[in-house]
C-alpha cells in the first residue's frame, strides 16, 4: 500500500507539476508572464459574470421573475410567521 501512495506522489511531483515548476522559475524573470494564467482565469470569471447579469436583465425586462413577497415557499402561507 505504501508503494501505491509513493507512486501517486511521484506522478504529481515528477510529471504533473512540471508546468507549475516552470511558472515558478519564470517568476524570477517576469512577474507578469508568470501570472498570465491567473489573468486568463480572471477574464473568464468576468465574462461569465457579465453573461449572467445580461441573462438576469433579459428575464427582468420580460417580467418573468416573480417578485412578490411570498414568491418563495419559505415565505408562503405555511410559514411560522402567520
Automatic annotation (TrEMBL):
Entry annotated with the keyword Membrane: yes
Pfam families (alphabetical): DUF6341
Annotated keywords: Membrane, Transmembrane, Transmembrane helix
Bilayer-spanning residue ranges: 31-52
Name of the protein in its database record: Uracil phosphoribosyltransferase
Organism expressing this protein natively: Psychroflexus sediminis
